[in-house]
Amino acid sequence: MIIKKKSLIVALVSSVVIAAVLVPTLIGYVVYIEFKGKEARMIYQDLLQKMNARTYSKYIEISNLDAKVEPSGVLKGKPVIEGVVKNKGTRDMSGLIVKVNFLDNDGAIIYDAIIRPQEPSLGSSGLTQIAIPYLSSSPKSVLKSGKELPFKRILSNCPDEIIIELQAGRGSAKGTFRWSGKFTYDVLTVDFQ
Fold first, then answer.
1. Any alpha helices (H) in 75-174, and if so which ranges?
2. Domain count of the fold of the chain
């Protein structure tokens, strides 16, 4: 059987077009599968951190929690929150993220702040540490089992009504605004050494 020249050209062009469509489709599929694999790993890590936090949070205690406007120093006039975090569990913690909730008189959350107590505290005594971007990460303290660690953090995006209460030194149910002066906290993530 003799193949005509036109038929051969049509078959060749069709094969090239099919290959030109098939190759990018396969490349896109491989990239998609790789992306989904990374996304699944990130979701798994996130769920694992949340489960660790939920399970281990009964061994984490935050005491002496207080918010105020810093009266002096570099942070003068800035709203800060400070307290002491204690590890009552058996494992050493290398990372901790906590959400502190400011409550109104009815117990509803009117403001929340995400804090990382193990990062170097503001206004802490000790050697000055210089962080050089891209060369080092922020040093963290490992919170050993049975130990406690004081912390102080700036309250970013703090509502004006809370700042006014803090400046007046009230932060109580007798205040003129919604904040009752009470806090709750939720452990968001825990990392272990």
1. 160-168
2. 1
